[in-house]
Amino acid sequence: MLRLVTPLSQDQINNLKVLDNITISGRILTGRDVVLPKLVRIIENNGFKDLKLSLEGSVIFHTAVSPAGIGPTSSNKVDIESSIPALSKAGVKIHLGKGSLSRATVQALKEHGSLFAITPPVSALFGAKVRKQRAIAFLEEGMEALHELEVVDFPAIIAIAHGQSIFDQGGDRHEYLI
Amino acid sequence: MNISYKGVIEEVAETLVSASTTFRPDQIQAYRNAIDREENLNAKWVLETILENAEVAAKKRLPLCDDTGIPHVFLDVGNNAGLPPGFFKAVENGVATGLRRLPGRPMAVLGDEADRISQSAGLSQDPADVSLAPIQIRSVPGSLVQLTVLMLGGGPEIRGKTQRIFHKHSIDVAIEEMVQWANEGASLLGCLPCVLAFGVGRTNIEAASLALEAMKDGNFLLQNPLEKRITEAVNKAKIGPLGLGGNNTVLATFLKVGPQRASGVRVVSLRVGCCFDPRRATLTF
């Protein structure tokens, strides 16, 4: 088990490979269907500095944050997966979620030196891993707002790294989503 | 039925909380069996973690998953039973009370029809606004009323479908297509191992209703030959827990075949349920 603390360096990312077991500690961001495309549009329109948010070396967890807890949502939903290339380019080093991603996304992750990690949806256990949480942007979206969590030893497995994907075993299954 | 309006609310609320926080004994045993036969260490870790999550959720009455799901209620009404006035309103209030108590995830979309489709008018902060789906009713012998609450998460809704198949008068052809659908869904569903629920009916509506009935009645340890055949066929793909590979892509298949019409067509409804499915609990009046 490799223990990572955010923010992550490119060297740390380069040393990780698929099926590595990791834990993540420190501050991580959350976002899903609604806010990730909004974040991408802001980055593309050069409005990012107004958010007072650093993505360099960051982890984005694809989850809602609500009184019911946290847990990964499907990362291959179109709003989420389509945001991964631009967010990787902007400095996100680990996208944390669940489900297979397309070959095009695998390539984009490789190009920007970022990884995709997966974690089981065990919300009853995750509560003990979260020390603090606060909504920091797009508050009007409620549970889908962009949150910052402070986590300790959050468990995950690297699923996509450096052009390799655990989901390749059965070919590119992403075509079925459309 | 001899129960007050408030009594129905309270019992339905507690049943919803149980459905959302508790694995049933057959479900726990299915996970233990899967852990025993799993050879992939990462996959085994996922299965053990899901079981540990269920133990903590039951002990602390926490949601198994943060996607607490859309509440569905299934009623088996005895032919000799009478439902008191206000019963359905009490069930609705019981669901709302249960969602606040759990608490459910506040994910009801606000606004008019266009707003609700595009999610452009925000979300309600009240978990109770995640309203009850249309109730399903069956007539059964006896004088009891059995009420089952099922909580249906969002991931499986992306992977399920209801569509016709051409059976060519062969069960093998029908099963082959059903297995193909399940493989397609399972390969994209993150929350594996999954539980497949199939309904086979004469119309799209009937098939979907039968799939829900299959989820209401299914037992992980009582699998008929068709259910076993589908489970074993999908497990051959070795997608495995979370997609990590291994022997356990599907934990069980729940199949309900209704009456059919003379035709080369069968309407099949599939829900590729997640690793917590079916989240259900039953109470008897």
Beta strand count of chain A: 8
The spatial strand order of the largest sheet of chain B comes to 2-1-3-8
Question: Could you spell the SSE succession of chain A in H and E letters?
Answer: EHEHEHHEHEHEEE
User: Which parts of chain B are unreliable, with pLDDT below 50 for 5 consecutive residues or more?
Assistant: none
Largest interface: A-B, 46 and 52 residues
Please characterize this protein's 3D structure.
The complex is a heterodimer of chains A (178) and B (285). Chain A has 178 residues and is of the alpha/beta class. Chain A has helices at 10-14, 35-44, 78-81, 84-89, 103-112, 123-126, and strands at 2-5, 21-30, 58-61, 92-97, 115-118, 130-137, 146-161, 164-165. A 5-stranded mixed β-barrel of chain A has the order 2-3-4-5-7. Chain B has 285 residues and is an alpha/beta fold. Chain B contains 9 helices and 8 strands. In chain B, the strands form 2 sheets. Chain B has a 4-stranded mixed β-sheet with strand order 2-1-3-8, with helices on both faces. Chain B has a 4-stranded mixed β-sheet with strand order 4-7-5-6. The N and C termini of chain B lie close together (6 Å). At the A-B interface, helix 6 and strand 7 of A face helix 3 and helix 7 of B.
Q: What is the topological layout?
A:
The complex is a heterodimer of chains A (178) and B (285).
Chain A: E1 2-5, H1 10-14, E2 21-30, H2 35-44, E3 58-61, H3 78-81, H4 84-89, E4 92-97, H5 103-112, E5 115-118, H6 123-126, E6 130-137, E7 146-161, E8 164-165
Chain B: H1 5-21, H2 25-37, H3 41-60, E1 70-78, H4 87-101, H5 113-118, E2 136-140, E3 145-152, H6 155-159, E4 161-166, H7 171-188, E5 194-201, H8 204-217, H9 225-235, E6 250-257, E7 265-273, E8 279-284
Parallel strand pairs in B: 1-2, 5-6
Antiparallel strand pairs in B: 1-3, 3-8, 4-7, 5-7
Helix pairs in contact in B: 1-4, 2-3, 7-9
